[in-house]
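In the design runs reported in the main text, the only information available to the sequence generator was the tokenized backbone. The following block is the verbatim input for one such run; it is reproduced so that readers can re-run the procedure and compare outputs position by position.
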């Protein structure tokens, strides 16, 4: 062990030779305070999340036609994992459920014509709206909850009204499409017949001699898994048909950006960000363009060819550890060097004075 003493880089001075002073104590306290502040700032930096964005071409998805051709082949079906859930929650406060129809890419639920679908893709349910749903659909957001009596009144109106809430999930392929929730063709024919001729096709007028009011409130509309850092621009939208007749078409156009969301210590999540534009198509425009669309809600969506990778991460813990060691050692070495220079300077000046 004796030869190792010659390599000792941390030789300890003899206690009797060391001289302690008040100035040295102040310098030590200053060094400790500086090291503590720097360490605290390093911990804060370590806890902060760094976000990086990158763009790349989105993976191509098999078309709906290809998915139809593979039929029930299990091996081929394994290649088609490109369907995403479309969740919809919407309330029509002035229409009963019997007067509503919904369709996807022209395949209507009421007609039973699903074309290229092997089975019904719809997993929606209809029911009367709750008091809260009715309140959201009929009262502006600024006034919701402003008065206690308003909710009680809404509960009474919800019981008496023939409103309808549509809630459910539709699994759609990753190709563009349309989803509509509108007045059913049969109810529309009966309403127009009563208005035009005063008679209906064998059944009473469900709208009491008026056109159907398709004002509605979209509680939620989500494509795939939600994107946690963002706000869903499709949810919480009220489309009020205030043209006097209550008849119009709320056209919502959605551009979906495939997004991979990666968090520290979490598996990557495939999500979608939505860019939305919406406008109300008045009945005069529908008539002038000879549109076959019925009043209600029309959602047109498409997928962009570019995808986004959103990565949230923290600094590597090895970098953090090395920074802490460097801070402690650097502070004391720097303070020691500065204090040594000051002491030597003071001693040199004192000698010249003497």
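Verbatim output:
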């Amino acid at each position: 062990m004796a030869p190792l003493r010659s390599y000792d880089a941390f030789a300890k001075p003899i206690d009797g030779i060391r001289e302690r002073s008040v100035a040295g104590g102040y310098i030590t306290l200053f060094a400790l305070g500086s090291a503590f502040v720097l360490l605290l700032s390093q911990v804060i930096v370590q806890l902060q999340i760094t976000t990086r964005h990158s763009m790349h071409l989105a993976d191509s998805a098999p078309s709906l036609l290809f998915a139809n051709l593979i039929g029930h082949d299990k091996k081929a079906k394994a290649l088609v994992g490109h369907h995403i859930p479309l969740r919809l929650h919407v309330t029509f406060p002035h229409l009963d459920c019997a007067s509503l129809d919904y369709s996807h890419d022209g395949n209507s639920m009421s007609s039973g014509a699903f074309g290229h679908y092997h089975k019904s893709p719809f997993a929606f349910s209809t029911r009367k709206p709750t008091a809260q749903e009715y309140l959201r659909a009929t009262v502006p957001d600024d006034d919701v909850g402003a008065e206690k009596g308003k909710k009680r009144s809404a509960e009474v109106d919800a019981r008496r009204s023939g409103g309808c809430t549509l809630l459910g999930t539709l699994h759609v392929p990753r190709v563009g499409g349309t989803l509509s929730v509108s007045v059913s063709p049969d109810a529309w024919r009966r309403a127009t017949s009563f208005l035009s001729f005063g008679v209906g096709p064998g059944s009473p007028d469900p709208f009491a001699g008026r056109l159907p009011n398709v004002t509605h409130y979209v509680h939620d509309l989500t494509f795939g898994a939600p994107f946690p850092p963002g706000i869903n621009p499709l949810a919480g939208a009220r489309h009020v048909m205030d043209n006097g007749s209550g008849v119009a078409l709320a056209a919502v156009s959605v551009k979906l950006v495939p997004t991979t969301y990666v968090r520290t210590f979490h598996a990557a999540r495939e999500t979608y960000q939505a860019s939305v534009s919406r406008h109300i198509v008045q009945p005069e425009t529908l008539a002038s363009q000879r549109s076959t669309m019925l009043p209600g809600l029309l959602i047109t969506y498409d997928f962009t060819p570019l995808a986004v990778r959103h990565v949230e991460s923290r600094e590597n813990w090895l970098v953090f550890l090395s920074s802490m060691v460097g801070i402690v050692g650097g502070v004391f070495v720097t303070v020691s060097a500065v204090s040594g220079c000051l002491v030597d300077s003071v001693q040199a000046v004192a000698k010249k004075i003497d």
